[in-house]
Specification:
A 7-stranded parallel beta sheet has the order 3-2-1-4-5-6-10, sandwiched between helices. It is an alpha/beta fold. Helices cover about 40% and strands about 15% of the residues. The chain is built from 12 helices and 11 strands. Helix 6 (about 175-185) crosses helix 8 (about 230-245). It folds into 2 domains: about 5-165 and about 200-225, Rossmann fold (3-Layer(aba) Sandwich), CATH 3.40.50.720; about 175-195 and about 230-275 and about 290-330, UDP-galactose 4-epimerase, domain 1 (Alpha-Beta Complex). It has helices spanning about 15-25, 55-65, 80-90, 125-130, 135-150, 175-185, 200-215, 230-245, 255-260, 280-285, 290-305, 315-330; strands at about 5-10, 30-35, 45-50, 70-75, 95-100, 155-160, 165, 185-190, 200, 220-225, 250. Strand 1 (about 5-10), helix 1 (about 15-25) and strand 2 (about 30-35) form a beta-alpha-beta unit.
Amino acid sequence: MTDSALVVGGTRFIGRHVVEDLLDNGYEVTIFNRGNHDNPFSGNDDVARVEGDRTNDTDLRAAALSVKPDIVVDCVAYRPADVEAAVEIFSDVDGYVYVSSGSAYAAEEIPKREGETELCGCTPEQAEDDSMDSYGARKAEGDRIVDRAAKDGVNVMSVRPCIVYGPHDYTERMDYWLDRVLNYDRVVVPGDGQHVWHRAYVEDVASALRIVAEEGDPGEAYNVGDRRLVTIEEMVDLVADAADTECDVVRASERELSTGGLSTSDFVLYREYPHVLGTAKLAALGWDSTPLSEAMARTLAEHRESDRDGSEHDPGREAEERVIGVLDTV
């Protein structure tokens, strides 16, 4: 008998890839969402859909009763109350996986490890907040709910991705850098180019969620991120290699950026202190990540077919050109 999977979400970025991974691994897949976004599986008879609001417990319970899933992957649990309801509603499934975040970690350690690195606290006010300021706190509280539910005998786990990139990324964070490399032969990189913000290729996040649902231990959290990390400069080089183009990296310090009215914080995917997640625990379940060259090639190929350019993250090319001009005279 074929196993069934319910994906809460399932149409945008991570959820979309989760559905594809589950199909590739022989699951019968149903997605559950409000229908606010285009459904990429609308013409696919292998993917069923149940409409409803995941914040409405009645809707979520109805989906559980109609689908009777073996596993559940919850991509859109943004508040602790969402997780609290889900672990009760799906208390009898073989595996419920909550998509948490590397932002759940409070301590700046290298690397951040499950069960060792301190998590963010979460006040009642943060638990109800919708802003990014409380995002890590809310995700951490969801992790604690997973831990408590497992102690009550529920097969629940969580997965903590770092920054996710890849095809169909509506955040357009990587699209900014892809667009820069494709359109300019000189790309400004903040700082000395050696800063590290751990990233995770989206197809690897999808496979991690499935593997944790199948093989993970109840109550445990699993970090997911590229097994080989690269600096921000090396990331630009990867893009250039994927595009088969030449691109000179122009490193600019805070002082040098200021000549163009810019700051290091104006550049997306830049982080002053390294953010690195340990991934050995997930790898021990049999998971591995896609080679970076392949991951970037697939990301770039889809970017070229899309209309995304990352312009909302653009610090301004004219400002960058002023910085380049100053550096050229040094």
